[in-house]
């Protein structure tokens, strides 16, 4: 989901990102620890049929990005995706969508800080909580200094991830063609442990939320594109290329893993990329992947602070958040919002250490399915705006209808597993809380007037 702040808005941040920053952020934005490690849980849950989950989720992300791009290009002064929802679905929906999206990425700040701290703790003899605090403070300072510094860091971190995935794909294809490593038994690997669909179609549906969680990141490129000189052109370019990036980085790499090793050898929490490379016979694969995963974690932490701060500043500018966060620095940076989001991330990281099985688990669950709600609201906004200005929209109306049905099917599928039900319940509670907050805000404002 994109948060687009156009430079024409007086209260919106402006930046000096270059096209090369946006290009590399677009390539690397969809690559994170969710692919390198999190894919193991999805594979273990659904088996080879997980490719259906990746294909369906990737298609949903592509459609939402294209719908969003149409709205922003058809009405370039609309501002952000929150404004799209506000104009298309009303102020209550805009308020809820903005806060849900902020909440999702704010939880990611704490989660990624802990993940990075655990990885670094293997090399540095410091407590995990100390390293986590240090990571958040360091990345916070990077975002506070300038937008260009954020873009430069994301450029190099994304480059590492892109090279790793493309290198793995080249290596996997070479192994399938018997150029390197022992010849893999593709048919056996795909049919072992109960066949291609070992746990049924509902397991595929249950895997979709975690797959969707791993794919969230495309929007960081759209956010960055809005802070370039040619915002409109870069936004259009990013939204068009999303599908190709997902196809190469997710579908191809996961398909290669499933062809190279039996899916039953992939265990949740252990990188399937490492398992595949060890099967091929690549020396030092675990250490190499640790470095790549660490770069992915820091990249995600960097993007999370960037995205949450822009979301919070945009909400504050619309009077949907405390106006204190709307203030920009002389460099046109939302420094107050950056500091506030980083502080919340520290609190989330603290919860993961002090109460990992209660508070932190609840926070993860409360943010786990909210992105489905946000996507649904964006689709509904597109349908509404399309009715008003149909000549400016290209995507057929039936595509948004099918997308809404798909989201409903995923939600129903989540009810068939204990973890899915708990995530759905906690996320529903988040929606209720933010909607209640909107009603309270409206009541307070009406009393003042």
Question: Could you name the key traits of this structure?
Answer:
449 residues; mainly alpha; 18 helices; 0% strand; disordered N terminus; AA-permease/SLC12A_dom; transmembrane helix; Amino_acid_permease_CS; membrane; Amino acid permease
Strand-residue fraction? under 5%
SSE order, one letter for each helix or strand: HHHHHHHHHHHHHHHHHH
Poorly predicted runs: 1-10
> Helical residue percent?
over 70%
Distance between the termini: 34 Å
Q: In angstroms, what is the radius of gyration? A: 21 Å
Which structural category fits the helices and strands?
Answer: mainly alpha
Shape: globular
Task: Give an account of the 3D structure.
It is found in: Membrane. With 449 residues, the chain is mostly helical. The protein has helices at residues 19-28, 33-46, 50-74, 81-89, 91-121, 128-145, 147-176, 186-191, 201-215, 218-225, 231-260, 272-280, 285-317, 335-354, 359-368, 370-388, 397-414, 418-448. It has 18 helices and no strands. Helix 3 runs antiparallel to helix 11 (231-260) and helix 7 runs antiparallel to helix 13 (285-317). The protein is globular and about 75 Å long. The protein starts with 18 loop residues before the first helix and ends with a helix. Residues 1-10 have low confidence and may be disordered.
How are the SSEs placed, and which strands pair?
Blueprint: H1 19-28, H2 33-46, H3 50-74, H4 81-89, H5 91-121, H6 128-145, H7 147-176, H8 186-191, H9 201-215, H10 218-225, H11 231-260, H12 272-280, H13 285-317, H14 335-354, H15 359-368, H16 370-388, H17 397-414, H18 418-448
Helix pairs in contact: 1-7, 1-10, 1-11, 2-9, 3-9, 3-11, 3-16, 4-5, 4-16, 5-6, 5-13, 5-14, 5-15, 5-16, 5-18, 6-7, 6-13, 6-14, 7-11, 7-13, 9-17, 10-11, 13-14, 14-15, 15-18, 16-17
Transmembrane segments: 21-45, 51-68, 99-120, 126-147, 159-180, 200-226, 247-267, 287-309, 337-355, 361-382, 394-416, 422-438
Domain Amino acid permease/ SLC12A: 21-437
Protein name: Amino acid permease
